[in-house]
Amino acid sequence: MTRHWDIFCKVVDNFGDIGVAWRLARMLASEHGIEVRLWVDDLAALSRIWPATSTGMKQQRVAGVDVRLWSKPFPATVPGDVVIETFQCALPDSFVIAMAAKPVAPCWINLDYLSAEDWVAGCHRLPSPHPRLPLTKHFYFPGFDPNTGGLLHERGLEDQRLAFVDDASAQAAFWAQHGLGLPQDDELRVSLFCYGDAPVPELFEIWAAGKTPLTALVPEGAAAERMRARLASGTSAAGWIERGAARFKVIPFTDQVGFDRLLWACDVNFVRGEDSFVRAHWARRPFVWNIYPQGENTHWIKMHAFLDRYTADLDDAHADAVRHLWRVWNGIVRPAELQQAWEDFIAGRGAIARHAERWAARLAEQDDLATGLVNFCAGVGKCRVTQEPGISP
Ligand code: TRH
Hints:
Elements: E1 4-9, H1 16-32, E2 35-40, H2 43-49, E3 59-62, E4 65-69, E5 82-86, H3 93-101, E6 107-111, H4 119-123, E7 127-129, E8 136-140, H5 157-165, H6 168-177, E9 188-192, H7 200-209, E10 214-219, H8 222-231, E11 241-243, E12 246-251, H9 256-265, E13 268-272, H10 275-283, E14 287-290, H11 298-310, H12 316-329, H13 338-347, H14 349-364, H15 369-380
Parallel strand pairs: 1-2, 1-5, 2-4, 5-6, 6-8, 9-10, 9-13, 10-12, 13-14
Antiparallel strand pairs: 3-4, 7-8, 11-12
Helix pairs in contact: 1-15, 12-13
The structure holds 2'-deoxy-thymidine-beta-L-rhamnose.
């Protein structure tokens, strides 16, 4: 039985590391009845995406998960049956030694970053024997095809989304939180979560000069600050910055559940990193991805790998519209092309939205990441050292 799991999360920056670890922890606890202990080195990051978390408590029970501050020195702890190391965060030495000392070594998983690249399927589940201790770590990769670990996708999520989008009063209550009524017929509502270097003020100017009334909600952060600094003159008492056909407001972070609602409510979602990117798939709306930047622009390869999969079943004109806007948004193509890129994308919105529906429905047929992990760890059972050839840790 693999009923006790430890998940380790080091917050490198922003919210994606904890966003993935926390969602996985909640799913394992609520959907699989697993006793999850989540070790995180930055409680403040968790409290931003789950405000019920107290930043002052080294140990607390939150949403059915035993949340622990990952402190140094690491406290003496008996490891669980499964140990998930997220994003190669390097477990504490004392904990690894304790893993090796158990009568049955825990199933040790490195949960890696999401990528649509072809090599992922070949590396998924590869074992990596520890050089000295009787332990084997397995590499586990999220991904978009059945030969990978799949995506985090809660049971019943689509039913919840449908209940929300079919319920005018739920939507009215949602918009009222932001001081808005229901959208006008010709209005576009947009969520805008991106990194600080995306051309956000430029896009806002394009919206302002356009004919379609557009309302953008921008979660607080670097991009919101840039917009505010550039456009602040004309801020209304209610916090709206209005220009021409467009208006935007910086909104506070909500918990992960509230963030989903924002994506469900908007017509177009700008998302970033890893976890919000995946949530945009499940929202089944047209979306624009700001990929997490990496050295030597290796992230562009990753983005194109995803675009190739995502647009494979889309007709050429709409595939080009998606590719063009995403390439401008991520700095691959000059910002001067932003206006044309936005206009083509929005002109194709209906077809792109239908494609988003089909794409999400297909992805939802795969096992979700949490279920896949549970099955894999049950199969590996006791991850006692195997002599399989693998990659070195
Ligand atoms: O915040 P991100 O950019 O995170 C990252 C990290 O930088 C990480 O180091 C990198 O490896 C990774 O991206 C790829 O983007 P992401 O992944 O979308 O995470 C944001 C999380 O914040 C996600 O779980 C959704 C959540 N969130 C809320 O819960 N409420 C909110 O209001 C908002 C705006 C986001």
